Amino acid sequence: MLKTKKFWIIASFICVLVIMGTLLKSSSQTYDEQSLVPVMDKILANKPFEGLLSHVSFVYANDEVSIAHLGYSKFLEFFIRKGAHFVTYFLMGASLFAGMYLWRKKKLWAFLVALLVPLLFAASDEIHQHFTGGRTPLVQDVILDFCGATVGALLCFWILRHFEKRKNNRTA
């Protein structure tokens, strides 16, 4: 049992380090190096669902997000990029919670670490982007990243609580 626990602690922290490394590499690239638009222009040349999506319009970081303003591929890329932000930090928050809880067995401590580390990393990543050509650091992205980490940590917290209740019901 101890070896299995140690394995999952190490695996959780390795996952966090891989995520951080991937994010650092990604934020070191210019927008043009990362852009999905050329590929999407080829793959989605017939612009599926454009009529339906053309009714979607909102403001993010003081910029309009719509097909009319960005074009079809850039509009879709916006959602892919922001979804990637959320999912990546969701995984970071979940991995940190799991690793910290398995290591220390303190839910509140694990939860706080799972929120604080991604928040600080997201803020430093946006600062790093300031020095990368063609990139714009956004407070809104830090908030989105933090939301992803929070949901990941909350899900782990809820799952842990669920299993603890089931275990307590069996022993009662």
TrEMBL record:
Q: Where are the transmembrane segments?
A: 7-24, 83-103, 108-123, 143-160
Sorted UniProt keywords: Membrane, Transmembrane, Transmembrane helix
Q: Which Pfam families match?
A: VanZ (PF04892)
UniProt-listed InterPro entries: Phosphotransbutyrylase, VanZ-like
Q: Where in the numbering of this chain does the VanZ-like domain appear?
A: 14-159
Q: What PANTHER family would the database entry show? A: DOMAIN PROTEIN, PUTATIVE (AFU_ORTHOLOGUE AFUA_3G10980)-RELATED
Query: Can you say what this protein is called?
Result: VanZ family protein
Organism (species):
Listeria aquatica
